[in-house]
Design a protein that fits this description.
406 residues, mainly alpha, 17 helices, globular, aromatic amino acid transmembrane transporter activity, transport
Length: 406
């Protein structure tokens, strides 16, 4: 099992998925209530598993195992398709990685306080987080696979301890709370959307599994089922233990991952509990950061190769890490903002793009061995939802929808 590539791929998908999106959930769902949060989660999981399987369908027609999504987009939509795919992928991944670096730096800066030491400067924490974790990405997929397996075990142990401590404190009244504003459910959709944004590593997974459709499909189903279960239980714990009014008050004062740690510590009255949440949050960020940066390397490598630019490890490392690092250093409070706009781009790259690719693939290759169920009707329905999710951030910006977190 430990040497099984399908299992390893599923863990990479799960590790990429369980990251900043999960940690942002309590920050954005405090005013939504438990019931509507669960409905939103299950609905988006169904939608994004469907679009992930569309990539499996399209990759059956790839000319080479290591073809990136942009190469497939150029194959079916020409140069404009490549430009759109490359732009959306890189901006999405830069936004996600910036959010992860910012969140990781925030958690690392507060870590010394648990040992009675002074807080580490945020910029120093951000640089340490990026350099140390980025080295594993530079090694490649095998390096990420190895460390992900190790960190995933630690993440599960920390998560189990958090649940062991929090679930007995769940109060039914807290779970019955209704949304403070039903429009919050709509406003939160783009951020929750990123919670299942594993699609950025589809090219790497396809290459790693040698284009095996059955293994690819199984990796997606297993790799997304793990996060869904974790998200559902996480929501049960946070919404059940923390009363809506208290939780909203604390997070409004400090809408960061440190704020989440402090909220758990204050309401549970346990310093140990707060630090375990910090450890779990850090491990979740790290595994997600590794997967996303793997996607950045794949996207940049595909772009540089196409236009005959130097695509050695040094050039890819500089191009991959500098933009999100600069954002994190000079806009350290941009965690939620980065995730919100990442949700917009995620809707395009993870939903609208695979729908378009699947549509053209079915037209040109009617005899594919594997096709996702639902036919073209499902494609149209998913497309409509994707467009709505892309519009939501603009409706929030113009004041038509409420902001879920500041």
């Amino acid at each position: 099992m430990l040497k099984n590539k399908t299992f390893g791929s599923a863990l990479i998908i799960a590790g990429t998925t369980i990251g900043a999106g999960m940690l942002a959930m309590p920050l954005t769902s405090a005013g939504m209530g438990f019931g509507y949060t669960i409905l939103l989660l299950v609905g988006l999981w169904t939608l994004l598993v469907y679009s992930g399987l569309l990539f499996v369908e399209v990759y059956q027609t790839a000319d080479q195992l290591n073809d990136g999504v942009a190469t497939l987009a150029e194959k079916y939509f020409g140069v404009p398709g490549r430009i759109l795919a490359t732009f959306s992928l890189l901006v999405l991944l830069y936004a996600l990685s910036a959010a992860y670096i910012t969140g990781g730096g925030s958690l690392l800066s507060g870590l010394p306080t648990a040992l009675g030491m002074e807080v580490l400067p945020l910029k120093t924490s951000i640089i340490i987080f990026t350099v140390v974790l980025g080295s594993f990405v530079v090694i490649g997929t095998k390096g990420v696979d190895g460390i992900t397996r190790l960190l995933f075990i630690g993440k599960l142990l920390a998560f189990a301890f958090v649940l062991f401590m929090m679930l007995p404190k769940v109060a039914t009244d807290n779970l019955m709370a209704l949304p403070l504003d039903y429009a919050f459910v709509i406003s939160a959709a783009p951020i929750f959307f990123t919670s299942f944004g594993f699609h950025v590593i589809m090219a790497s997974i396809n290459s790693y599994l040698d284009g095996n459709v059955a293994q690819f499909r199984k990796a997606i189903l297993i790799g997304t089922a793990i996060p869904l279960i974790a998200y559902l239980v996480w929501q049960l714990a946070t919404h059940g233990v923390l009363s809506q009014s208290e939780f909203v008050r604390i997070l409004q004062a400090e809408p960061t991952l440190n704020g989440l740690v402090n909220a758990v510590r204050e309401i549970t009255g346990s310093n140990i509990m707060g630090e375990v949440v910090r450890i779990f949050s850090a491990l979740a960020l790290i595994t997600s950061f590794l997967g996303v940066m793997l996607g950045v390397f794949e996207g940049l490598g595909d772009l540089f190769k196409r236009y005959h630019l130097p695509h050695n490890r040094l050039s890819l490392t500089l191009a991959a890490f500098l933009p999100p690092l600069v954002f994190a250093l000079f806009y350290p409070k941009g965690f939620i903002t980065a995730l919100s706009y990442a949700g917009l781009l995620c809707a395009f790259y993870c939903l609208i793009l695979p729908i378009g690719l699947a549509w053209r693939t079915r037209q040109k290759n009617p005899q594919l061995a594997y096709r996702v169920m639902g036919g073209n009707i499902a494609l149209v329905f998913a497309l409509m939802i994707g467009i709505v999710i892309m519009v939501i951030p603009f409706l929030i910006q113009t004041g038509y929808l409420p902001t879920v977190a500041s």
